[in-house]
Recover the amino acids of this structure.
């Protein structure tokens, strides 16, 4: 039972009782007074006995308080019956810590046109709270035309700091003056004209890099005498009749009279009623600042939990994790951010949204901010080069006073026909095996493929995960039919190849995906035929070119010899091209045979995974490893070293398969071909969406800008397609662009193009008659896309199928994240296989986690107690994202 030291503890214990038999209770230094309806005296006595147990005397007349043995302490219990029509006096829930657990009644919204109120608070002092407020001020008062009007209030009435940092005349109007006027007036609105008139004299100016900016400042006190003999406290003001939430209302009215957009309030640190009237008012945007120390983090999470009943979803608290030591790794920072995010009331509905909605802002320690001579110096010279000034403060400023960036040519909103066209185009692109339309999005990988071989044909390996877009790029090479034409598609400035007497360098599909659709299969056959025709009639007795099916049969019979050699590949290349058998003895012989016939050929290889399907319990054989190494390393390097104008090779292969074959020195191999690896950054992901829309006839961004546009330009353009947020435009939901990237990424920060194309397709199909995608269509599409992803990779990577079946068929109560391998009888090799394909990530104590794009499809739910850890993993992934 809670100790009863004073009458206050007694009142607190009774205040939380549900359906009490009394009308009113009050206590003082001498007695507990209970008022009830006639005839309910016995009910009151029984309830008091239930609440306080043996602390109630046998006669029911006294209540024992905490005492020493020799000095007993107690309160008299006085129960009074009231009249028949008596009703209980309503308890007013005030924005004070004593009432923090109680849900307040209806609180009227601030009047239309009121400025945003932002209260900066910290559990501990010395964590950078005031500096964070000033950094936010700097981001808000950028000079015209972008600058906003701001009122800064030093509301730390116990240890004011801003009042000393922004000095002024000894008679300037201050917060204590304003509180006294509000407290004493019968109608506090009557004091607004006087307060506004005097506060206009407190205009401050600072010279910033872009010019002069101004703001209003309300100091805590006028002079030392007033500080040490305060006329009224904030708590006294809110305890007045009808004044429970007057502090926020009066400050908002004062700001509105001044014509400001935002009111920034610097609160007192710690658990104190000097801060609670603003911190616990649901209409005020709270910004909590904490350092990385254990005390500060725990105190901040404690306060956030205490605020839970007072927070509205549209005013979720923001948290600034400040003064991060340089020695902290991104994973350590992400873990702290995850713990804080998990404590914020009204968490997002899904973990991906929670990871990107931006409630936790990180700022590394900056020694230059420890001491500054003036606010002007801080804003102009010191903050711009720090995390706080460059990242955290601008994001807070954008939250408090969103600015609309005017577009030179506004993007048209897609029509209903437009969404249908988007869905149709995305359906064509979802599986590259079915795309037979020339046209590609220039990515850094493709640009590097062209730029790195300006004077000849390429010799490269393009690595990428399943669904990254390897087959699409391979298909574009085949559809182009000519390496020079493909190069021009990628770069209009691509140099002409030095091929005397030749007008083209044929692209020859040495291997293609087994499951290609008829339209693409016809194009592949056309590409083969063009090369065979260019090579001329075969001499009598020469065998017909080796078919692709026959070559795959040879691949299935992996050689067993112990020596590594490229001869297997050179002979198959010669046979597929229809060259004499003697041309296949070496790479050099193939190139010479092509030169003799005046033909240049770039071999395009894809679908090699169809012949090599390792599993957790069935790794590649030594022969298979050797065969792949010969192609990816020796054959490719031999072609590169040859620098022939007649022979090139580009192999598209899954990264995990290459790693399984190249067991030693894979890092060196990857570094050699790293520029050609298909890795989708956040910016490239948005470019892909804009490119799909452009192909569908929706030009939300100038088509020529798509390959070059920076993230912010893409983000603005795509608002016409999927909105700004997963909610109303002014809501606190996650920004759509950031949610999409996080929801589709694994814990390594890797996103696959196919997942993104599918999400666009499914979401558009769900709302074909809407002008643009809706938040619900995107959320629902994610679940459907996750299920589709699971099904397709079971087919493409058969080794995953039995593992997925084991996870999927487990009882529902076991399908939760995190989990242990032994929960599903997963061997260490199984877990490693799942990790390799981005399905799980293994952390401390061998806990396993699934990313959102996988979790939904396998029917797993999130253990609420581990949300912070999952958030940390997502934050770390975002930090690693290119």
């Amino acid at each position: 039972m809670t100790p009863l030291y004073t009458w206050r503890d007694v009142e607190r214990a009774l205040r939380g009782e549900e359906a009490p038999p009394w009308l009113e209770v009050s206590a003082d230094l001498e007695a507990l007074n209970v008022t009830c309806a006639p005839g309910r005296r016995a009910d009151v006595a029984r309830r008091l006995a239930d609440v306080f147990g043996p602390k109630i005397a046998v006669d029911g007349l006294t209540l024992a308080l905490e005492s020493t043995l020799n000095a007993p302490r107690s309160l008299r219990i006085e129960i009074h019956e009231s009249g028949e029509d008596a009703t209980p006096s309503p308890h007013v829930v005030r924005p004070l810590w004593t009432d923090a657990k109680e849900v307040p009644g209806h609180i009227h919204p601030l009047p239309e046109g009121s400025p945003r109120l932002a209260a900066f608070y910290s559990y501990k002092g010395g964590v950078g709270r005031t500096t964070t407020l000033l950094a936010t001020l700097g981001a808000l008062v950028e000079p015209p035309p972008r600058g906003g009007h701001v009122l800064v209030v030093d509301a730390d009435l116990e240890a004011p700091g801003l009042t000393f940092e922004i000095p002024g005349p000894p008679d300037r109007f201050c917060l204590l003056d304003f509180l006294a006027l509000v407290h004493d007036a019968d109608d506090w609105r009557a004091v607004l004209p006087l307060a506004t008139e005097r506060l206009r004299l407190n205009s401050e100016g600072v010279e910033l890099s872009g010019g002069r900016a101004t703001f209003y400042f309300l100091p805590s006190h006028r002079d030392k005498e007033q500080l040490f003999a305060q006329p009224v406290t904030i708590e006294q003001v809110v305890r007045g009749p009808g004044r429970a939430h007057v502090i926020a209302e009066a400050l908002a009215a004062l700001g509105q009279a001044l014509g400001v957009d935002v009111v920034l309030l610097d609160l007192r640190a710690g658990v104190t009623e000097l801060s609670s009237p603003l911190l616990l008012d649901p209409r005020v945007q709270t910004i909590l600042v904490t350092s990385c120390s254990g005390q500060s983090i725990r105190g901040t999470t404690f306060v956030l939990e205490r605020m839970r009943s007072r927070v509205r979803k549209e005013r979720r608290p923001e948290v600034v994790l400040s003064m991060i030591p340089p020695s902290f790794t991104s994973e350590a920072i992400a873990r702290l951010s995850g713990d804080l995010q998990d404590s914020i009331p009204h968490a997002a509905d899904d973990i991906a949204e929670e990871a990107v909605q931006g409630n936790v802002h990180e700022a590394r320690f900056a020694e230059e901010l420890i001491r500054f001579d003036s606010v002007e110096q801080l804003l102009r010279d010191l903050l711009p080069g720090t995390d706080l000034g460059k990242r955290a403060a601008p994001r807070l400023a954008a939250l408090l006073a969103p600015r609309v960036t005017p577009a030179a040519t506004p993007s048209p909103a897609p029509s209903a026909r437009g969404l249908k066209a988007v869905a149709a185009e995305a359906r064509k692109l979802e599986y590259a095996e079915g795309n037979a339309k020339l046209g590609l999005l220039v990515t850094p990988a493709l640009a590097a493929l062209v730029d790195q071989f300006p004077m000849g044909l390429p010799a490269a390996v393009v690595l990428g995960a399943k669904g990254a877009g390897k087959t699409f790029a391979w298909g574009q090479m085949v559809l182009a039919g000519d390496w020079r034409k493909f190069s021009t598609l990628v770069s209009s400035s691509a140099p002409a190849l030095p091929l005397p007497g030749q007008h083209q360098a044929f692209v020859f599909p040495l291997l293609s995906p087994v499951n290609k659709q008829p339209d693409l299969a016809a194009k592949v056959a056309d590409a083969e035929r063009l090369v065979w025709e260019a090579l001329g009639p075969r001499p009598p007795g020469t065998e017909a070119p080796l078919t692709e099916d026959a070559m795959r049969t040879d691949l299935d019979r992996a050689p067993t010899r112990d020596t590594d050699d490229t001869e297997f590949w050179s002979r198959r290349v010669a046979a597929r091209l229809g060259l004499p058998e003697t041309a296949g003895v070496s790479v050099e012989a193939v190139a010479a045979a092509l030169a003799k016939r005046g033909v240049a050929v770039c071999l395009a290889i894809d679908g090699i995974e169809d012949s090599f399907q390792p599993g957790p319990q069935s790794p590649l054989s030594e022969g298979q490893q050797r065969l792949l190494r010969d192609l990816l390393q020796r054959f490719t390097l031999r072609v590169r070293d040859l620098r022939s104008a007649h022979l090139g090779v580009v192999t598209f292969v899954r990264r995990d398969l290459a790693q399984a074959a190249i067991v030693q020195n894979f890092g060196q191999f990857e570094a050699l071909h790293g520029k050609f690896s298909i890795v989708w950054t956040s910016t490239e992901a948005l470019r892909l969406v804009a490119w799909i829309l452009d192909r569908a006839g929706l030009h939300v961004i100038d088509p020529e800008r798509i390959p070059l546009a920076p993230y912010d330009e893409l983000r603005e353009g795509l608002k016409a397609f999927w909105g700004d947020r997963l909610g109303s435009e002014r809501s606190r939901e996650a920004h759509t662009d950031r949610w999409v990237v996080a929801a589709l990424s694994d814990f390594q920060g890797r996103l696959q193009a196919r997942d993104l194309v599918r999400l666009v397709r499914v979401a558009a199909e769900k709302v074909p008659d809407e002008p643009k995608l809706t938040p619900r269509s995107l959320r629902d599409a994610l679940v459907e896309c996750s299920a589709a992803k699971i099904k397709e990779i079971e087919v493409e990577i058969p080794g995953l199928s039995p593992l997925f079946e084991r996870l999927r068929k487990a009882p529902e109560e076991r399908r939760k994240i995190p989990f242990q391998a032994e929960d599903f009888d997963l061997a260490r090799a199984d877990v490693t296989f799942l990790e390799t394909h981005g399905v799980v990530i293994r952390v401390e104590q061998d806990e396993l986690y699934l990313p959102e794009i996988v979790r939904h499809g396998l029917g797993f739910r999130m253990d609420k107690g581990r949300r912070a850890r999952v958030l940390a993993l997502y934050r770390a992934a975002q930090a690693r994202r290119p």
Remarks:
- Residues 404-411 have pLDDT under 50 and may be disordered.
- The longest strand covers residues 71-81.
